[in-house]
Write a structure and sequence with these properties.
Layout: H1 5-29, H2 35-57, H3 60-83, H4 85-105, H5 115-123, H6 130-160, H7 163-192, H8 201-218
Helix pairs in contact: 1-2, 1-7, 2-3, 4-6, 5-6, 5-8, 6-7
């Protein structure tokens, strides 16, 4: 698949942001950066998420009141944050991995369809074979295990190893490990499924968009 120039530039810009943030996070966690700057980088994702949530609320009072509350909370906690930058990054790293493990793992219980199986249905107009259903459930288990293992290793390194060693794993190796998981799953998929049963990430994204558009069109409109 060949990306359009605009899509390619966006992908490269996103990659540059991810790599740049990872390097700055590593320097801050390892104690090689100014504490205030390191704390600012560490809290940036939290601030961005808070701004997005407040913006979606839409009401000016929520935006102003929530923004003021976030600012006052950061100002109150700043002395503590700048003294515990590595701990802040650790909480983010473990929290993200545990959240993703929950996101994938909860679909393996209580009669739910496995998350990767849902993605496969998006890519195949809502229909998948029993073979693909079994395979995608196994992939869901693999991703759940990956995120739980990452959180466990991160915790052990943070409390038992030097800060720099933990930071290399959490900030510099996490993304390459995720890419390796995708690559490994792709290779397994080539052997485990016939060609007609395989779907690419692009197929899944297109199917997801189509399903969401259909759902929005079918949703009742408020008068």
């Amino acid at each position: 698949m060949i990306l359009a120039p605009v899509s390619l530039l966006r992908a490269l810009a996103l990659l540059a942001i991810i790599v740049g943030w990872a390097v700055l996070a590593h320097q801050g966690s390892a104690g090689d950066a100014h504490r205030d700057f390191a704390a600012a980088v560490a809290t940036a994702p939290i601030i961005v998420i808070a701004v997005m949530l407040l913006w979606r609320a839409g009401h000016p009072l929520w935006i102003i009141g929530g923004g003021t509350a976030v600012f006052l909370l950061l100002a109150w906690a700043w002395p503590l944050l700048r003294q515990n930058v590595a701990l802040l990054y650790y909480v983010q790293h473990v929290g993200t991995n545990l959240a993703l493990a929950t996101f994938f793992g909860r679909t393996l219980f209580d009669g739910h369809e496995a998350l990767v199986s849902q993605f496969a249905r998006f890519a195949h107009a809502g229909v998948i074979s029993p073979l693909k259903a079994r395979y995608t459930r196994q992939v869901t288990v693999a991703w759940t295990t990956f995120f739980l293992t990452t959180a466990t290793v991160s915790t052990l390194l943070f409390w038992l190893a030097p800060a720099a060693a933990w930071s290399v794993f959490a900030n510099l190796l996490t993304m390459p490990l995720i890419i390796m998981m995708f690559a490994g799953e792709h290779l397994v998929r080539q052997r485990a499924l016939p060609a007609a049963e395989r779907s690419s990430i692009a197929d899944t994204i297109r199917g997801y968009r189509t399903a969401m558009q259909a759902r929005n069109q079918a949703a009742p409109r408020n008068p």
